[in-house]
Amino acid sequence: MNEQTKDFLNTLSGILLRCWMFGFALLLFWFFVLQGMRTFVHYLHGSLFGVSDHELDVIFYCGMGLVKIGVLTFFFIPWLSIKLMLRKSL
Question: Which of 25, 16, 27 is closest to 60 using CA atoms?
């Protein structure tokens, strides 16, 4: 593996790591907003869409699960693969 390829992969791994961290920061923000302002969020979305509190909880937590799977699949696993490949090439 030449030096230019290693530099590219190091840059890409840095981008993927930042995307992974921002994705999990978004998830933490989402979680804390739901926990801290649960009544307001349920009032706002429940009145707009006519769904119950339980249905909103299911929608929000399924959405959080999908975002978590997406962040892990598209950012963390490629970052880990690149890091392992770079370590092996040393």
Answer: 27
Q: Tens digit of pLDDT for each residue in 27-85?
A: 999 999 999 999 999 999 888 988 999 999 999 999 999 999 999 999 999 999 999 99
Kindly report the length of the chain: 90
Please give, one letter per residue, the 3-state secondary structure of the chain: CCHHHHHHHHHHHHHHHHHHHHHHHHHHHHHHHHHHCHHHHHHHHHHHHCCCHHHHHHHHHHHHHHHHHHHHHHHHHHHHHHHHHHHHHC
Count of other CB atoms within 10 angstroms of residue 22: 12
How is the chain split into domains, by residue range?
3-89
